[in-house]
Amino acid sequence: MTTNFNFTRFTNLLKLDIAENWKNSLFGLLGIYAAFLIPMLGWLWNPSAYSFHQFCNNMLGVVFLVTSFFFIFYASRIMICMNSKEKRISYLLLPATMFEKFLSRFVIVTVFLSIQVFVALLALELSRYLLQPLFRLPAEFSQSMLAEMAEMMSRTGRAPVNMDGEYAYSKVLMQLLGFIFLLWNHSLFILGGSRWYKHPFLKTLGVIIAFNLIGGVIFARLVETGMMERFFQWMSENFEETPATTNGLMTAGCLIFASLTIFNWWLSYWLFTRSQVIRRKWLGV
Question: Where does the chain cross the membrane (predicted)?
Answer without folding.
Answer: 26-46, 58-81, 102-124, 172-192, 204-223, 249-272
